[in-house]
Design brief:
Blueprint lengths: L23 E5 L5 H4 L10 E5 L2 E2 L13 E12 L4 E11 L10 H7 L3 H5 L4 H14 L8 E5 L3 H12 L13 E4 H9 L6 H7 L11 H17 L8 E5 L1
Parallel strand pairs: 2-6, 6-7
Antiparallel strand pairs: 1-8, 2-4, 3-4, 4-5, 7-8
Helix pairs in contact: 6-8
């Protein structure tokens, strides 16, 4: 399978080259049919799901950092097993990221995420990490015979921090098509369970699921999102796209 070693040539993604002097915003896709949400054993529109949860530089209270920068880039690939009615882990991508603006982490950030200064200081910058991620993603997809999609908890990961991060690397990063559409698991949770959740912790509590690791650890949150996905699949949830990036 062809590698993404030409990822950063702008002409490759002309159709999806979202120029940063334009306004970027999130559009909700058509929400899943309410009747299909409750039907068990329904076929899923996607066969592969890339569960992603960024962690970023931050500070407490009035001292909110601007811009925030991604410091943990985790993604777990799962496939839906129709026979078992649940998701199975196929592969994992995980890297920490060196910030380039606010290079020293705040005490609040380390306490919240568990990520220490030495970890990010010895990690590659975002454009290198994203290049490696795209290679990994490409190695695990074949768009000619299967459909895949990103899954997040909320719209912040793709619709906010990812876009802001890409602005810091305008000459090297162009947004590929697969990063423009995603599933916000909170929306599907609300449609399936009848209540909009505050976050991962509340979704785990509502479904009586055990929390894995620490909230605000990106890789642990990916595992917890998969747990929530399995709970929703048992209730007949259809995992359709909920949001997409468009430019105007």
């Amino acid at each position: 399978m062809k590698k993404f070693n030409i990822l950063f040539r702008p002409q490759i993604f002309q159709k999806y080259n979202l120029m940063f002097n334009k306004t970027m915003f999130i559009r909700s896709t058509e929400k899943p049919n309410a009747e299909s949400i409750t039907r068990p054993n329904i076929s899923q529109p996607y066969s592969k799901f890339f569960v992603l949860d960024f962690e970023a530089t931050c500070d407490n209270g009035a001292h909110i950092l601007k811009p925030q920068e991604i410091i943990e880039f985790p993604c777990i690939l799962v496939e839906f097993n129709t026979a078992k009615g649940g998701f199975e882990v196929v592969s994992c991508f995980h890297s920490y990221v060196k910030p380039i603006i606010h290079t020293v982490l705040t005490e609040y950030c380390t306490q919240l995420t568990g990520i220490t200064q030495d970890v990010v200081s010895n990690s590659p910058p975002f454009d290198e990490v994203f290049f490696n991620f795209c290679n990994w993603h490409n190695d695990h997809t074949n768009n000619d015979i299967e459909k895949s999609i990103i899954v997040t908890s909320g719209n912040w990961d793709i619709g906010n921090i990812f876009i802001e991060q890409c602005k810091l690397f305008p000459s090297t990063i162009k947004i590929p098509e697969f990063m423009c559409t995603w599933i916000n698991i909170k929306k599907l949770f609300a449609l399936t369970m009848g209540q909009y959740p505050l976050g991962i912790k509340s979704m785990l509590k509502t479904t009586n699921s055990k929390q894995f690791g620490n909230i605000h650890s990106g890789i642990d949150d990916c595992v917890n999102i998969i747990t929530i996905m399995n709970q929703l699949s048992q209730r007949g949830c259809v995992f359709q796209a909920t949001n997409k990036l468009i430019s105007v």
